[in-house]
Amino acid sequence: MVFVAFPPDVASTPSDVKLLYQKVDDLIQKHIDSVTSPQTSGDDTSVSSISFVLLVIKTLTEAGKYIEPPILVRILQRLARDMGSSAGSHLRQGQRTDPDSAVSSRQGADLGAVISNLKSVLKLICEKVMVVPDCKRSIWIEDDFCKPGRVTSSGFISPKEIVSFLQKLSQVDKQSFSHDAHEDWDRKYLQLLYGICADSKYSLPLRQEVFQKVERQFMLGLRARDPEIRKKFFLLYHESLRKSLVQPVVVSSSLPDSSGMQQLVADVPEGSEEAPLTFDSLVLKHAQFLNEMNKLQVADLVIPLRELAHTDANVAYHLWVLVFPIVWVTLHKEEQVTLAKPMITLLSKDYHKKQQASRPNVVQALLEGLQLSHPQPRMPSELIKYIGKTYNAWHIALALLESHVMLFMNETKCSESLAELYRLLNEEDMRCGLWKKWSITAETRAGLSLVQHGYWQRAQSLFYQAMVKATQGTYNNTVPKAEMCLWEEQWLYCASQLSQWDALVDFGKSMENYEILLDSLWKLPDWAYMKDHVIPKAQVEETPKLRLIQAFFALHDRNTNGVGDAENIVGKGVDLALEQWWQLPEMSVHSRIPLLQQFQQLVEVQESARILVDIAIGNKLSSTSVGVHGNLYSDLKDILETWRLRTPNEWDNMSVWYDLLQWRNEMYNSIIDAFKDFATTNPQLNHLGFRDKAWNVNKLAHIARKQGLYDVCVTILEKMYVHSSMEVQEAFVKIREQALAYLEMKGELTSGLNLINSTNLEYFPVKHKAEIFRLRGDFFLKRKDSEDANMAYSNAISLFKNLPKGWISWGNYCDMAYRETQEEIWLEYAVSCFLQGIKFGVSNSRNHLARVLYLLSFDTPSESVGRAFDKYLDQIPHWVWLSWIPQLLLSLQRTEAPHCKLVLLKIATVFPQALYYWLLTYLLERRDVANKSEIGRLAMAQQRMHQNASGTGAGSLGLTDGNERVQSHGGGGGGALATDNPVHQGTQSGGGIGSHDGGNTHGHEPERSTTVENSVHVGNDQPSQQSSSMISESGQNAVRRNVASAASAFEAAKEKMEALRSKHSNLACELEILLTEIGSRFVTLPEERLLAVVNALLHRCYKYPTATTGEVPQSLKKELSGVCRACFSVDAVNKHVDFVRDYKQDFERDLDPESIATFPATLAELTARLKHWKNVLQSNVEDRFPTVLKLEEESRVLRDIHVVDVEVPGQYFCDQEIAPDHTVKLDRVGADIPIVRRHGSSFRRLTLIGSDGSQRHFIVQTSLTPNARSDERILQLFRVMNQM
């Protein structure tokens, strides 16, 4: 009592009491010195003195007095000496024939006192001293007086006390030990433990009890760092385990250690290097080797691996996962069943929780070993779920449960456990898919699909209907309970997404669900009911969300220590969140999203506490000083500015936005209350809370509207901001959001119009007035009131001409009017409005440009669209056309060509590199059409003279064109363009295909181009076209027009290229050098080209509707003939001798229609031969040619190239303005050129490294095929979809 009332270390303790403490310490020290001196050994008074000292020490420790560990050690040493002398005297006294009874009884009493004192010391060590961390490292019991066996015969320590003492020593926390002290402790203790368990001089029951209750419980021996000590304890385990079915798995790692791998290698006889190697000696050495290997056992492999596993936990983990399935598959079915039961029991033990935070841990290894075993043992699904979420074995448990779901289809608990794991990992799509597969009712499947797509209102109605039907007995009790619970859960989830907090509160009150009440009441808000009825009764799980709500309440309550309590609660919430974070899978990002959102809320609670503190400090300073300091409330202003910038993602669920912004709304209310008296002294501070609260409410309503929750948007705007005053800007945003919500709601058009009509426009600037008039026009248009809509749009533009949305809305109205009336004036108005809107910077200009180009393509004869287009073309920013360059180039051969030429000319002037690649490709694709325009005219005249043979002529025309193309290019390499044409180098680079060594490659390109283009042409021929015998005069005129338009388009493209070259001569020169080198050095090999052709022909066979037994179609025969001529032409024979030698004879024998004797008779046989050739060519290409080329070996020009103006391609597809001088320039080409092989085609992939260090990868396509063009179109489509 004295120690409690007057602690020794407190300054207020009276001096008399301190003197008393000093006297007690001196008395103890005096007695200890007297009893531990060597001269007092055996003295009768020493025993009583030791008993007195121990009694005093025990009393002091119970009162909280700290006792130095060396004191107990000295006493223990003295008792050990007395114990030894007393035991020896007792033994000698027992050997006398005539003992002195008085002496004997006195010695026995002394021995009993010594034993009693020993027990007291041990008890003090275990119960009082070992709980103090600083004392543990000072306590160790030497072997001489710690081995109870030495005096077992006297029975001074019972076996129960021995086990208890050893268990206490096993639980010593050694974290504060130094490395040497730790090793010394382990070595001495394990020697003591092993001596008791293995020494035969101890009784067998004692050894067994110590082994079972100490070593088996803590496994200290198996975890020892010393291999020799581990080996000894392994032998103890091996002897204690009974031989059973578990032996192949558990005892296999405990087999006797005959020799290690190093000793095994050392025992192999080594041959003399000087002895000659004869056949007999070689056979003898091999026989000796086989004999040695024959002696190896499993232990020779397992024991070294077992020792290796002690070096790293990951090694042990993977060894178990590797070995256990191998052992499992060797067992019989009965043995597997017998082994599975103890394994399941082992996995369900509670002591595994000690490793809950370890990575990896034992439970993960055991579970993964079972998961990889075949056949998998059946395990309780609840146990798998518990292990998965508790021990970070998520994906192992998921794999097990997924296999269980497929194996045991009638087991509903498996699917429920799997769905729960999906929910905990935030994998809602997987969870919904699982429930849709196993659900009974159609309402469940439809409702989950609606939930996945965000149709909360419809999904909620569907789940409510399902619950009503179940209550009325419609399903006849066929729906399982889990599915009905899912209905309720999903109804509540939809209610939270729809912000139906009143309904959730009513549900929570009726069901006494305090978790729902805690989550819903503060959002109403109803803090009073929460304080009086929920918080005193709530007993819910400790989660970060619960801590958040408690912190909210602490800050709102504003008691004397509200801020401090909130900070403490937030700290606990952070700890819980971090613990949950650690329990989640490492590579799972989606599962951590809810925790990241909770972290943001926790941070904002801390910031809210800082706001309250800052307000309190600021008010105190402002009230005590004259005037207002300039730096007052700086922390408050910084936090409010940060909150505006730190918002959730727009695609996050509405509940995430509501949780965050609703609490901010509470803080804004606190700020308004704090500064309500500053209206005259500091109006800026007075309006601070109103301004930010209005922005907060408008932002939340905007997100609700964007997510299609129009009712929620209107409710937020009407109820959340309850003040009468609001800034003009925020008032406009509120009206706009509310009007847009009414515009999308059914039956609310009148309400929206009334809202706009009742708005006082005097306070708004002109731009806002114009926007309100535009919204009025949208309402009129939706009500089918065209005249009023037109008038409203007109008024909007009249008020503010630079209103982009006003022009676009008016353009949509004119476009609709044109579709209804077909009056050209509306068409001209629509295009004019669209272009004006694009001019003034509408955000989605891409969509409206697409409509303008579409209307331009189908312009009326009076060219109303063209007139409007030309009128506003100069006012349109040039960068908006960059995404539509392919369409503009295609327009060159249509009626809108004169208008598109102007656009392309502007692009060539301002953005030359954005146009150059497209324009060059366009020229290469149409070079042959331009050169053969005269030939085409002659062919048309010839067709008019032979109309009866028009079908055959049409079929042979494409082949003739291909032959002429080969002849025109195969001779002198003049190409499609004149030699002085500056595009000539680009022609070679883009179309040239030749040998891999990069020689002259211009001559072989036409052959491959002919092959592919001809095959595409013939493949598209319809049977009706082949059998047709007449071509009408209108058809001939159309063909003539197409040829003429193609030639004129080619000339127009050439003009644009000439303009580009004249304007940017240095850039054009650098681009030509770059592309020429790429086109000549990175062409595909003939084997790769032939493989691509065979793959295309094989797919062509798959598309034919004829039966597989039918004859090969004539069109396909023509394609094969063209392939054989193109791939094995005279030019190919000269250039690729090896290729022709390896493939020509066999290929023509199998697939050339001219080889009548060997050509396949049916389509099925042709398909089989094409498959064979595809396999042969694919195998040869993959085996003979490398997968990665080196730039320094392929092209030294590209390796050493240095360009100044060339940009890295692909920077103009972002649909926003990019200044040409801000683009990334090309620095160099990557050193490695991988070969990409897919779908039978091979491409070289170049890595272009920019001036900023970025890397972009490009596929080199040297063929001008429809596939190449379709790839670009697909990429363009993907870019458009990504920006939606």
TrEMBL record:
Locate the coiled-coil region(s) and give their ranges: 1043-1077
Q: Biased composition, Low complexity: where in the chain?
A: 1022-1033
Q: Which Pfam families match?
A: FAT (PF02259), Tra1_ring (PF20206)
Protein name stated in the entry: Non-specific serine/threonine protein kinase
Q: Which SUPFAM superfamilies match?
A: Protein kinase-like (PK-like)
Q: Which InterPro entries match?
A: DDR_Repair_Kinase, Kinase-like_dom_sf, PI3/4_kinase_cat_dom, PIK-rel_kinase_FAT, PIK_FAT, Tra1_ring
Superkingdom in the source lineage: Eukaryota
All copies of domain FAT, residue ranges? 383-925
Q: Which family does it belong to?
A: Belongs to the PI3/PI4-kinase family. TRA1 subfamily.
Q: Per the record, which residues fall in region Disordered?
A: 86-105, 946-1033
Keywords in alphabetical order: Coiled coil
Compositional bias, Gly residues, is annotated for 988-1001
Task: Offer one example of a GO biological process linked to this entry.
Answer: DNA repair
Key word Coiled coil present: yes
Kindly list the GO CC terms recorded for this protein: NuA4 histone acetyltransferase complex; nucleus; SAGA complex
